[in-house]
């Protein structure tokens, strides 16, 4: 339910804040006062496109903020949970700011959300009903979706059908691919066989290329390595000339220091360090000697390794940048080879799957057909009953459901709303015969029926009274009041017959102050409400007769609503 709406710098609305109640909230005012602007602002907070043209002249931004109670709206709670947003005491606060520079900021309970998310949530918060929605009823493709919403058993059945339908299409697609590829099968088979044999014969090992590079580098430089190692070993051991090697000289240093160690204790750590260095050099000399024994110049092995490296390089150019990529390609090629070699088996398997799924799909479509026909009869009956209360007692509204051999994403049905306004007239599609006034009443009848079927708690009626008056206005008021018994309704109207049914009456007026035009909103008291109804009755001057008529209308409305509360139905 919409609890409050605050609007800043939106067209003629400089700063307004209005609170709404449960039941029927009537919005009235003189022509041009800005009633449609209020609906535009509400549309923006529900995710409709916002233009900078809406921003009030002389300001840099507009802001719309709404508070909704959502305790009973399970679908909204689920969407919020997906976004990681927690309601506060069963309510959400949505704020949307649009700046002249094009920046659009949307915040829900302190969290930034995208326009797409706002639209998803908005669709489940408020149902907007106006001339655009009326015209959508003339599109036959809408009819099947409305029918499917009428009975709760249909949507689960439709979901099951669509899952089978998707699987069936996927199998058919795979079959088509196999049939297309069959023409290239032999050529592809030869190529994959040659490729897999080439990779398999190479017997590649992970990191083999790295090890090869290391060994090739050593063998290619073996003579240089041998010279350097021999020279290093000589310097450490025997030495050059008469001085002896580094180890011998360091040993002599050690002996000299040890001979004077008794005279100065500060020499102890120096001698210990030299002793440790001596041990390490002796160990390193031994290691160098061992390494000398491993050095060999082997041109034959070097050539063999280089050939192996060239082979791996060629395979990388064909199948991947690394050995891992080559082996991955090999696995994929093996799988494709298996598929090609077992082509007939794959075709047979897919054909069995297709036929099995087709049987399931036809059964699911038949179930949908049964549910829709039952639902169609009930929907047509209920809408016809509502039309009778809307001044069309002889009207006949029928939901025509045709079965088809064509299986589509929504089943095997074509659904069309048929209508006849008078006895003896042939039922025809809405878009071929319905007039503007008839369409408005049909749309209202449909809304009255579906108000009990969905979770949305707030409905908005804009221009629902266009082109009607007198007794018909009373009948429309009754339907709207019926809807407001279970839903919150916001209704913009020019007719006192509808306004008198209000649980809350909000007056919208245009003011001019300091050469600036501003629209304001105020909640009417009972006395102010009577005055407004009198204005709506007379159209101009509020006369005693107009006040008396307004009082009578209010009394009639009050008595009807009391009666409805007792009977709980019209």
Automatic annotation (TrEMBL):
Residues 1-509 form the RecF/RecN/SMC N-terminal domain. Residues 340-374 form a coiled coil. InterPro entries: DNA_recomb/repair_RecN, P-loop_NTPase, RecF/RecN/SMC_N. One of its GO terms (cellular component) is bacterial nucleoid. The keyword Nucleotide-binding applies. GO terms for biological process: DNA recombination; DNA repair; SOS response. NCBIfam families: PRK10869.1 (NF008121), recN (TIGR00634). Belongs to the RecN family. Keywords: ATP-binding, Coiled coil, DNA damage, DNA repair, Nucleotide-binding. CDD domains: ABC_RecN. This is DNA repair protein RecN. May be involved in recombinational repair of damaged DNA. Gene3D superfamilies: P-loop containing nucleotide triphosphate hydrolases (3.40.50.300). GO terms for molecular function: ATP binding. The lineage of its organism: Bacteria, Bacillati, Bacillota, Negativicutes, Selenomonadales.
């Amino acid at each position: 339910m919409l609890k409050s709406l605050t609007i800043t710098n939106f067209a003629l609305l400089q700063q307004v804040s209005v609170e709404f109640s449960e039941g029927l909230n009537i919005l009235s005012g003189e022509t041009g006062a800005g009633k449609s602007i209020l609906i535009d602002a509400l549309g923006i907070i529900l995710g409709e496109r916002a233009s900078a043209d809406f921003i009030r002249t002389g300001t840099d931004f507009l802001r719309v903020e709404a508070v909704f109670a959502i305790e009973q709206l399970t679908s909204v709670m689920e969407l919020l949970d997906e976004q990681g947003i927690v309601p506060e005491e069963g309510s959400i606060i949505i704020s949307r700011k649009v700046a002249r520079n094009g920046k659009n900021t949307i915040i829900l309970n302190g969290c930034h959300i995208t326009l797409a998310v706002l639209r998803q949530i908005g669709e489940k918060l408020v149902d907007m009903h106006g001339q655009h929605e009326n015209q959508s009823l003339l599109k036959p493709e809408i009819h099947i979706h409305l029918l499917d919403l009428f009975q709760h058993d249909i949507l689960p059945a439709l979901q099951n059908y669509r899952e089978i339908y998707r699987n069936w299409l996927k199998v058919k697609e795979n079959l088509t691919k196999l049939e297309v590829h069959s023409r290239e099968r032999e050529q592809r088979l030869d190529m994959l066989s040659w490729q897999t044999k080439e990779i398999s014969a190479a017997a590649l090992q992970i990191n083999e290329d790295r090890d090869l590079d290391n060994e090739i580098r050593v063998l290619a430089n073996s003579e240089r390595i041998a010279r350097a190692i021999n020279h290093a070993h000589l310097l450490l051991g025997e030495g050059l000339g008469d001085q002896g090697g580094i180890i011998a000289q360091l040993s002599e240093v050690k002996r000299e220091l040890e001979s004077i160690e008794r005279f100065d204790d500060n020499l102890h750590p120096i001698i210990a360090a030299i002793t440790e260095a001596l041990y390490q050099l002796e160990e390193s000399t031994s290691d160098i000697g061992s390494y000398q024994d491993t050095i060999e110049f082997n041109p034959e092995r070097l050539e063999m390794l280089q050939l192996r490296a060239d082979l791996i390089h060629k395979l990388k150019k064909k199948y991947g940048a690394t050995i891992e990529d080559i082996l991955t390609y090999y696995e994929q090629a093996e799988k494709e080879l298996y598929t090609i070699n077992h082509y007939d088996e794959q075709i047979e398997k897919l054909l069995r799957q297709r036929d099995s799924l087709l049987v399931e799909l036809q059964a699911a479509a038949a179930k949908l057909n049964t549910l829709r026909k039952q639902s169609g009869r009930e929907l047509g009956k209920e809408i016809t009953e509502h039309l009778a209360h809307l001044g069309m007692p002889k009207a006949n509204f029928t939901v025509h459901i045709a079965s088809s051999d064509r299986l589509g994403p929504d089943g095997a049905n074509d659904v069309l709303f048929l209508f006849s306004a008078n006895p003896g007239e042939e039922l025809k599609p809405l878009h071929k015969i319905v007039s503007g006034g008839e369409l408005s009443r049909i749309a209202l009848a449909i809304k009255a029926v579906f108000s009990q079927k969905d979770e949305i708690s707030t409905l908005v009626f804009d221009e629902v009274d266009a082109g009607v008056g007198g007794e018909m206005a009373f009948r429309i008021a009754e339907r709207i009041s019926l809807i407001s018994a279970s839903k919150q309704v916001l209704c913009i109207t020019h007719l006192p017959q509808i306004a008198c049914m209000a649980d809350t009456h909000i007056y919208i007026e245009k003011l001019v102050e300091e050469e600036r035009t501003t629209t304001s909103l105020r909640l009417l008291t009972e006395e102010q409400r009577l005055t407004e109804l009198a204005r709506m009755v007379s159209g101009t001057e509020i006369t005693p007769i107009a006040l008396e008529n307004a009082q009578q209308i209010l009394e009639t409305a009050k008595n009807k609503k009391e009666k409805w509360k007792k009977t709980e139905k019209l």
